[in-house]
Amino acid sequence: MSRTRPLAVKLIAVYLCLKAAALILAVYIAHTRPDLRPDANEFFKYFSINIGVTLPYPAALLNLSVGLGIWFQQRWSRTVTVLINSYYFFKLVVGSLILKALGQESLLLSKTISPYFAISSLASLLILCYLLDPRVKREFGERD
Questions:
Q1: Rounded distance, CA 9 to CA 139, Å?
Q2: pLDDT tens digit string along 91-105?
Q3: Number of domains in the chain
Q4: Among residues 142, 123, 143, 122, which one has the least CA distance to residue 73?
Q5: In this structure, is residue 2 part of a structural domain?
Q6: CA gap 49, 17 in Å, rounded
Q7: CB neighbours of 63 closer than 8 A, spacing ≥ 6?
Q8: Alpha carbons 127 and 9: distance in angstroms, whole number
Q9: Mean pLDDT across the stretch 47-61?
């Protein structure tokens, strides 16, 4: 079955595969350059948070497999991506509400001000909005 691959699907797949490569690179840097270990640890902590896994290898493997699934427009990969991003935003909202209840100082001191967190959150939100579109769902072979 030959389907055309929309540009947004290509971008999502490339983003997920690059995220997997960046996680692997961060682990490599953390092991080979002790002076850069804190920065590498912060990087893969924020890019692993999307799937609720703190270990970078499972996060990289999941991102790579889902990225390839998105590239080939597999239904399971769309479903997994929607579930992961929905879980991420539920966790983000609950965490933000808890921090807000603790006071503004806690919110300002939290690590949510990291650029990695901002990039990851924005990308996840855009991906989730795109994949929830009914036309995109049909592109992945889902019925209405």
A1: 10
A2: 777 777 777 777 655
A3: 1
A4: 142
A5: no
A6: 16
A7: 16, 17, 19, 20, 23, 51
A8: 9
A9: 62
For residue 139, what pLDDT band results from cuts at 50, 70 and 90?
A: confident
Q: How far apart are CA 31 and CA 13, in angstroms?
A: 28
C-alpha separations of 31 from 36, 48, 81 in Å: 9, 17, 29
Three-class secondary structure of residue 33 per DSSP: coil
User: For residue 142, what is the DSSP state?
Assistant: -
Residue 101 domain boundaries: 7-139
What is each CA distance from 122 to 4, 53, 89, 119, in whole angstroms? 26, 19, 11, 5
Residue 144 included in any domain: no
pTM summary value: 0.75
For the chain, what percent of residues have pLDDT higher than 90? Answer: 25
Q: Determine the Cα–Cα distance for residues 135 and 3; give it in Å rounded to an integer.
A: 14
Cα separation of 23 and 65, whole Å? 14
pLDDT tens, residue by residue, 73-82: 999 999 999 9
CB–CB of 24/56 below 8 Å?
yes
Query: Which pLDDT belongs to residue 1?
Result: 45
